[in-house]
Amino acid sequence: MNEFRRSKELFVRSQDCLVGGVNSPARSYSPFPIFMEDSEGSKIYDVDGNEFIDYSLAFGPQIFGHRHPRIKQAVERQLERGWAFGTSTEKEVELAELVSKHYSSIDKVRVVNTGTEATMSALRLARGYTGRDKIVKFEGGFHGAHDSVLVQAGSGASTHGAPDSPGVPRELAEKTIVLPWNDKEKLKSVFEEIGGEIACVIAEPVFGNAGCIPPKDGFLELIRDLTSDYGSLFVLDEVITGFRVSMGGAQELFGLEPDLTTLGKVAGGGYPIGIFGGKQEIMKHLSPEGDVYQAGTFSGNPVTTAASIEAIKLLKEDNIIDKANRKGEKIRSKLNKAVKGLPVNVEGISSMFSIFLCSEEINDYGDLEKCDFEAYTKFHREMAKNGVYLPPSQYELCFISYVHSDREIEDTVDIASDVLEKVL
Ligand SMILES: Cc1ncc(COP(=O)(O)O)c(C=O)c1O
Ligand SMILES: NCC(=O)CCC(=O)O
To answer: Which NCBIfam families does the record match to this protein (predicted)?
Structure first.
């Protein structure tokens, strides 16, 4: 049974110098976070020398497994030549070409450092392009930690009970209209009422920050139709799904054509990245071609772009997405079988899944209230004691990589069913 003595000591130290002892609230959990220091493939290792099969995978990017040798080598090659020039580089061009090759809705991109920056900039561009201020998002949707989207936000904001963050000016929050996910009638009536004032609808194609909740039939298509009819933009936030559910993201899988797309996570091969892009007609409004301002010292930096290019090539050459999808199907079906009779519901698509501690199906953010959050905290800790690292909240997704072995999946299922019997 794993023990976490050194993590506990470090948490005492970190609380004196980091807010809540962490650098992101999503990493703060009871009784104290486990401090990691090493990784290889499907495994991560903590400061006490414990080994874990990892299903958090850095909150998503590591579909390749940790420390993939090809990504490591690409970064090392770049380190030999420099890691920050603040100038144009050939790699940026290569990366932009690769992204638009895989995303038919994208002619041009801008590369930034995080998903947060990507959605923040995409919303500014949508507002600048349409000359309108209002945006629509969905309850429990998470698009990063910036003002316009910290309204009824999922992920850590919900975990820590602050889906509407203080500090966001009321005047700005009022410009964000929040609707229930998968509710076609509400969406239609908002457009009928004020469609001409809406700059854009931003949506995760598959909910990933209020657990994994796929779209109901026709919901994304309805967003597409209404935004087109009313001259608003459809911003598809593929920070989680991009380069994960298929090379061309959820838009390829579902046959959608958004106006703007945001990417992150897997797209950086584990290095910090955000990308947003769309058709030239819209992108040309971004500075320096247009007036909508956006900039950044580290945007498109050479190390991240080297990692990203290698990652995208690797995804294709090693057929990583199909392999990870099959592992996803396997773990979901085995877990569901193993927990029959318990109030547990394993849902998901592709290489992502949620272990909801409740017996009913989860269709929207409100349904998460039916889940047992206290039991999840115990479940998370007991799993870690038994060598399995899960995301620390039911709001976050479990991810599986293409290098998780069948043996590891079987061990995980056995451990999870024993632990769940105990904690429920
Ligand atoms: C759908 C979605 N959009 C945007 C973000 C923000 O990305 P980042 O954490 O890289 O800023 C996240 C992060 O979890 C996300 O899940
Ligand atoms: N789904 C939310 C995140 O991935 C955020 C991770 C973090 O802030 O550490």
So the answer is: hemL, PRK00062.1
- Cβ-in-10-Å burial (0-12, 13-18, 19+) of 188 comes to middle
143 lines ligand 1 (CB under 6 A): yes
Q: What is the mean pLDDT of the chain?
A: 97
5-67+319-423 CATH fold: Aspartate Aminotransferase, domain 1 (3.90.1150)
pTM above 0.90, yes or no: yes
Q: Is the ipTM of this complex over 0.95?
A: yes
Query: Is-contact 180 366, C-beta < 8 A?
Result: yes
pLDDT band for 18, please (50, 70, 90 cuts): very high
Q: Which ligand is nearest to the CA of 56?
A: 2
CB of 270 closer than 6 angstroms to any ligand 1 atom? no
Q: What is the CA radius of gyration of the chain?
A: 21
Torsion of CA 110, 290, 238, 240, to 10 degrees: 50
158 confidence band (pLDDT: 50, 70, 90)? confident
Q: Which helix (H) or strand (E) holds 338?
A: helix 320-338
> Which one-letter DSSP state was computed for residue 191?
H
* Pocket of ligand 2 contains residue 28 by CB under 6 Å: no
Please tell me the distance from the alpha carbon of residue 171 to that of residue 158, in angstroms, as a whole number. 22
- CATH architecture of the domain covering 69-317: 3-Layer(aba) Sandwich (3.40)
At residue 296, does pLDDT exceed 80? Answer: yes
Q: Is the pLDDT of residue 161 over 80?
A: no
More confident residue, 156 or 312: 312
Atom 16 (ligand 1) nearest CA? 240
| Separation between Cα atoms, residue 377 and residue 360, nearest integer Å | 19
* Residues 393/210, Cβ–Cβ less than 8 Å: no
Q: Where along the chain do its domains lie?
A: 5-67+319-423, 69-317
Name 382's Cβ contacts closer than 8 Å, sequence gap at least 6. 419, 422, 423
DSSP result, 228-297: HHTT-EEEEE-TTTBTTTBTTHHHHHHT---SEEEEEGGGGTTS--EEEEE-HHHHTTBTTTSSB----T
